[in-house]
Amino acid sequence: MLAAEDVAWVLRGTVLSSRPDRTLSILEDQVIVVDSRGFIAHLESAASAGSKAALELVETGKVGEDKFVDLGDQGWLLPGFVDTHIHAPQYCNAGMALDKPLMEWLHAYTFKAESRIDRDPHGLGARVYERLVQRMLENGTTAASVFGTLSVEANLVLAKAFLDAGLRGQIGKVAMDQHSLPTYVETTSSSLSSTRSFISSVRSLVAPLAPEHQLVEPVVTPRFVPTCSLELLRGLAGIARETGARVQSHMCESEGMVNVCRDMLGGKSDVEVLDELGLLSSRSLMAHCTQSTAADLALLARNGTAVASCPLSNVYFSAERQFPLREAWHAGVKCGLGSDISGGYRVGLDENMRWAVGVSRLREGQRGAVRVGGEGEGEGGSSLAITWQESLFLATLGGAQALGLDTDRRVGTLEVGAAFDAQWIALNGKRSRVEWFDLEDEDGTVRKVTTEEKVEKWWSNGSEADRRAVWVQGRRVYRQQS
């Protein structure tokens, strides 16, 4: 057991965590000890000798009561959510104009919002980003892959907002040199130069911090193929190789986007071009991929490229076809969930978990029309529908795998050695929408609602009202106001 001075937190109660096989682990009456560096040092039943020793540290006052959390019999701890795709400057527009076609929406709303923030990064930009990160924490998000704007300065404001809030961020300065507003576009050379500058600046920003507290990293971010010349894409691939930075972009998001790319690229798809230029690797993350073919999924799997699935956004912008999630898993593609603010209107991942299940059930209902490669794309011919437990995997460990955080920082799970990125859910608040009733059978036996059934009810009806606190790397970054 740790010495008292090395203990940051002691928590007791039920612990939930997704397993690599996408099933859900539920461990009741556990004791977790978090060390001073923010890692889980102990996780065992409260009846174990180690757990009793930890509780004794609290009972004897060697560890202060302010460092002890009783999760209660109506609550549990689970990993923080990992948002694999969010556009920070578009938070201004969240919930607006979702009836517009993708390209019209970009030009009429998105590019304008981003350019306004670039013109006023320390005013409007700071206000938007400070509010956004607080909303993300309130919704249980502890890590995110983030698109910014064109400006290095505005993106540094964004990076600092994440650092100040204690939120993990893989943040990208957007690169685009064509097919945008005349007032919101870069030259190829300036885009490459500013991308290098941003990577260097972010790394300098976090360099003085201990490795476990370097929560923000820069990401090479071509917006998507239509807005990037081949010269720019080639240059960005070179920067990613030279610097070791991760890559994020959009890919085969809608039928219209696929057709535009083929018209621009002499019949080639954006998937083919990104692969040829070296932008699809084990350190790459592609958003949407709703139009993926079986060959595309096989290519992503071979390259180790992950997908950020954004079901809420895709029902608006890719309604004719949704991401083939079950087939992607079967092919070996790492997948997570993204809010896609503001293509999606909800900051948290709760709605995206629900939509992921709903969309998959619709795909299963239309299985003959939607399978992407003939017979057997599901695991052993299994259903295309996913379970709510599998959607919870997508929002936690699956997202961490997609961002490479499961190996770099042991994020996305609650186990000894993992970073303590967690959220405390409690269902006994006055504003909770989650209710249950223990029913009496005819013979007088009372059937109590199980913990897993309570979790499912929360998955279906939960909200911010049920989130008592959030931690990132052992630091409590959100606490619900009573």
From TrEMBL:
Gene3D superfamilies: Metal-dependent hydrolases, Urease, subunit C, domain 1
Pfam families cross-referenced by the UniProt entry: Amidohydro_1 (PF01979)
Chain ranges of the Amidohydrolase-related domain: 77-449
GO molecular function: guanine deaminase activity; zinc ion binding
Superkingdom of origin: Eukaryota
Cellular compartments per GO CC: cytosol
Entry's Gene Ontology BP terms: guanine metabolic process
Keyword Zinc among record annotations: yes
Cofactors (names): Zn(2+)
Record key words, sorted: Hydrolase, Metal-binding, Zinc
InterPro entries on file: Amidohydro-rel, Metal-dep_hydrolase_composite, Metal_Hydrolase, Metallo-dep_hydrolases
Protein's name in the database: Amidohydrolase-related domain-containing protein
Organism in which the protein naturally occurs: Rhodotorula diobovata
Taxonomic lineage: Eukaryota, Fungi, Dikarya, Basidiomycota, Pucciniomycotina
